[in-house]
Write a structure and sequence with these properties.
single chain; 172 residues; alpha/beta; Rossmann fold; 5-stranded parallel sheet; globular; P-loop_NTPase; ATP binding
Length: 172
């Protein structure tokens, strides 16, 4: 199974994924951003974009990489990855379904003011214009398709440990 932790940049997906891994025996964290970083290494050959998810190879590579990793390590993959474009999510989730891989799609949510405060106050990554740029895109996706497609876990007034516990409790 794959536990996909969606939500915008700065909401706590990576932190939550590590805590979920501690709580869920046999689970492994797989960050699909690494697939994007690999594609960035061949960037001169790819068209310019502000987000590697826009490159057509990224989505099927995420599916195939996750499938092979899951076949190799077994258990559950916890995947913290923002996907705010519905077409991209349909391509990824459909590809995983075609391989018979069940996906539990959860969205970590925080109110926009909370997100901005977290991003601006991040002591590890520092304030990030890239992350701030996605707050409004997330709000749009949440309103139009994302919250209807996934189980929403509100992180606004919860600690990372509480969010991770709620994620694990939501699993079959």
């Amino acid at each position: 199974m794959i536990v996909w932790l969606n939500g915008t940049h700065g909401v706590g997906k990576t932190t939550t994924a590590a805590l979920v891994q501690e709580l869920l025996p046999g689970s492994h964290v797989f960050d699909a951003e690494k697939v994007g970083e690999t594609l960035m290494d061949v960037r001169p050959a790819l068209p310019p974009t502000g987000n590697f998810q826009d490159w057509a190879p990224w989505r099927p590579l995420v599916v195939e990489t996750a499938r092979h990793v899951l076949d190799f390590v077994g258990g559950t993959l916890v995947m913290p990855m923002t996907v705010l474009v519905e077409e991209y999510w349909r391509e990824i989730s459909g590809g995983l379904a075609a391989h018979g891989i069940p996906v539990r799609h959860l969205v970590l949510h925080a109110e926009p003011d909370t997100l901005r405060a977290r991003i601006l106050g991040d002591t590890v990554l520092g304030p990030s214009p890239f992350r701030l740029a996605y707050v409004d895109a997330y709000a749009h996706a949440a309103r139009t398709w994302l919250h209807a497609d996934a189980q929403v876990v509100d992180t606004t007034h919860r600690t990372a440990a509480e969010v991770a516990a709620q994620v694990v409790a939501a699993l079959p």
